[in-house]
Sequence to fold (204 residues):
Amino acid sequence: MAKLYFNYGAMSAGKTIEVITTAYKYNSKGMKALIIKPAIDTKGGNFVCSRIGMSQKVDILLKSDDNLIDYLKNYSDITCLIIDEAQFLTEKQVLELVIITKDWNIPAICYGLKVDFQGKLFTGSEALIRYADDLNELVSICACGKKARFNARKVNNKYVFDGNQILIGEDESYDPLCETCFMNKVLKPYSKQFQAIYDKTVKE
Ligand SMILES: [Zn+2]
Fold:
């Protein structure tokens, strides 16, 4: 029985590099590894692009209302599926991956962020944490040197806490931060919910 894998991490954990190298390992030996990317991730268009300059054309650009299984009917002899930006999969698409791995016996290797800029699980990540056979954390490093688990959003180079989960066309960037730095740099100054809790913990 094939497995569903979820390799998750914060920004700059090298996820897309692994997508490209994993696909290369299969395809260079004459096997067929399909690269899939949710279309909601518009950066790079038809390509997966790593921050260090590597890129690779995707085989399937998956819209949120698409059935993955309909696309796969166009292919034969698939060795495995490699999914980048898997945090953007819908729950239904994750369930399709359960069917593809368990019924069709094709492994699916997913790469994605675990949490959004507020520290909340993405829909796809939440479903993958529940359904994946194998969970593996890819490490990225906070500016303080500790392991980063959060993705703090910056707009015009300032941290923000409010806003939509997905921004399109804004001047935003993301910093991988550890728990302590996320609390000090983002939650304490910008989260009203956190401030209300934190104020009660400060001794008179
Ligand atoms: Zn830190």
The longest strand covers residues 4-9.
